[in-house]
């Protein structure tokens, strides 16, 4: 897969819309959402057993999504080559929202992606995640923006 393949589904305008949706969402709760896109994994990693889920956990750590005051960070990770969406929630929110709910969000996004509706799929996913965060992490008097809102394009082979 060419290194620029992600741009077909996520041009600048779509990345801008995702950033705006995350920024607006985070005014309604005290959680933090990160969205990361990785085009593909190096073949050597796959041969050694790297999966989309394992990679999402690594990216969660690299992006420091765990580094929030209430342990309420959520990573939405998209591995373009595998059409794989993984949602990783920090321990604060994972203790309150079960894995089936996250899987439901991923399935909603995947359904939109199959129709070629990448922006709509991501924006719907952000909306669903926001609803969960609003229910469990309402905004306090002090609601700092702890993590960047801009989607991250993970460079090939980034460790």
Topology:
Elements: H1 6-9, H2 12-25, E1 32-38, H3 43-47, H4 52-62, E2 73-79, E3 84-89, H5 91-94, H6 99-114, H7 118-136, E4 152-154
Helix pairs in contact: 2-7, 6-7
What report would you give on this structure?
This protein has 159 residues and is of the alpha/beta class. The chain has helices at residues 6-9, 12-25, 43-47, 52-62, 91-94, 99-114, 118-136, and strands at 32-38, 73-79, 84-89, 152-154. The protein has one domain: Diaminopimelate Epimerase, Chain A, domain 1, CATH 3.10.310. The chain has seven helices and four strands, in the order ααβααββαααβ. The chain has a four-stranded mixed beta sheet with strand order 3-2-1-4, sandwiched between helices. The longest helix has 19 residues, at 118-136.
Summarize this structure as a short list of keywords or feature phrases.
single chain, 4-stranded mixed sheet, 159 residues, alpha/beta, Diaminopimelate Epimerase, Chain A, domain 1
């Amino acid at each position: 897969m060419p290194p620029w393949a992600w741009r077909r589904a996520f041009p600048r305008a779509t990345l801008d819309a995702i950033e705006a949706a995350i920024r607006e969402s985070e005014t309604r709760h005290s959680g933090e959402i990160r969205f990361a896109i990785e085009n593909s994994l190096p073949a050597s990693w796959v041969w050694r057993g790297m999966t989309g889920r394992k990679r999402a956990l690594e990216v969660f750590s690299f992006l420091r999504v765990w580094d929030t005051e209430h342990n309420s960070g959520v990573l939405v990770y998209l591995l373009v080559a595998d059409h794989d969406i993984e949602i990783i929630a920090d321990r604060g929110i994972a203790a309150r929202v079960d894995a089936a709910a996250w899987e439901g969000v991923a399935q909603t996004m995947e359904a939109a992606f199959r129709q070629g509706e990448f922006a709509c799929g991501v924006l719907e996913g952000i909306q669903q995640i926001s609803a969960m965060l609003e229910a469990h992490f309402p905004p306090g008097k002090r609601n700092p923006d702890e993590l960047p809102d801009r989607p991250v394009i993970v460079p090939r082979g980034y460790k």
